From TrEMBL:
Location of the protein in the cell: Cell membrane
The species this protein was found in: Paenibacillus foliorum
GO MF: antiporter activity; xenobiotic transmembrane transporter activity
The protein's name in its UniProt record: MATE family efflux transporter
Membrane-related topology note: Multi-pass membrane protein
Pfam short name (any one): MatE
Principal place of residence: membrane
Amino acid sequence: MFLQFLLGTADTLMVSHISDDAVGVIGISSQLFAAVNILFMAVASGAGILVAQRLGAKKEAEGRLIGIIGAKLCLGLGALLSVLLYFGAGPIASMLQLPAELQPMGETYISIVGGGMIFMAAMAGLGTVIRNTGNTRSPMYIAIGMNIIHIGMNYVVIYGAFGIPPLGLEGVAWSTTISRLLGAVMMIAVFCGCFNQRIEWKDFRLFNRPLFKETLKISWPLGVSMSSWCFTQLVIFALIAMIGSKELSARTYMNTMESFCFLIGFSIALAGQIRIAHLYGSGDHQAAYRCAYQVIWIGLVLVQANALLLYWFGEEAIRLFTDDPEIIMLGVSLLAINLLLQPAKMVNMAIVNALTAVGDTRYVMIVGFIIMWLVAVGGSYYLGIQLGWGLHGIYAAMIADELLRGLLVLVRWRAKRFMVKSAVRLQSEQAALMS
């Protein structure tokens, strides 16, 4: 995940040599693409969780079929969104509240990168299924290859190497899309061999209505919850754009640096989710319950250590991106607040992923949707815009959102409702067999 994240970081760092305005375009466009990617991740996560549960229960044939169904859903959704983003780039750039001077750049970037969403769908959908089989290394190796290709192409299109004229932000967009295309091809090759029985092209015609419904039952609440988070972030970026272009650039740089902390925590939470789903599928519910707390403590130690390093060396890191003193001052002032934001995120991610692993996605959806829109978005508007606190007010609202959601999902996990539901389901299955 860190290596995939470097695709965006490489864009931000290298595009900063074009202009801070180009960085702002990438920052707000990336929120849009993250929201789209969340749709793919939601479908893939539902399939991935069921794959892990089936493998834990020694039902590999069902797990394989669920993986195929999830892959087809992601690819179909990716093709549809590629068409919509390519032809609707102009209206979308306006909707994102980009300043007038950034509109042409935004339209170009969104049309090219958005037109390649099917490749992002392949990376998200297939990669999630592969990881839930326990193979977390292959997606990592693919990410390494993608980064080498992407950074190399960025160098050529930004600096005009090998006699090629500099292509600016448009060239970076093509670099991103081509690297994702190559990554998707490699991911398909790995996906076809990720189960004991190899997946052939003819297997993509397979379909099972009950397993499809079971996948959607987990996926649609995940889709609402995860999309809601990304769209709230998109709205918050639009609010920041209303404050000013320097604030937008500062938030983009901070978002890039904070992501180092976030990715550590999220990767640990995701590993915990895979482990908990396997344990839950095997019937070892107590071990699954304890695993969530192990994830929290391991994650808190590593995330907070990373946040402290960022606090100590953050100013030097910001200067790698920009030499604008106002942007640097804004970024540095937010580094201390980040020490509160990251631990709150870690607790929230750990328990949300644990609840997701046992299929309790509807509660996560309800809590996430209400709190994110009321506290994160409403609080950002009130504190950041109405009271005039700017970025500091928006950060305060984001911290309040993470803390409140984390508390509510932790209460839910401690209630152990998934154990009760599992016992009831097992009794029903036994009764059906006896009858």
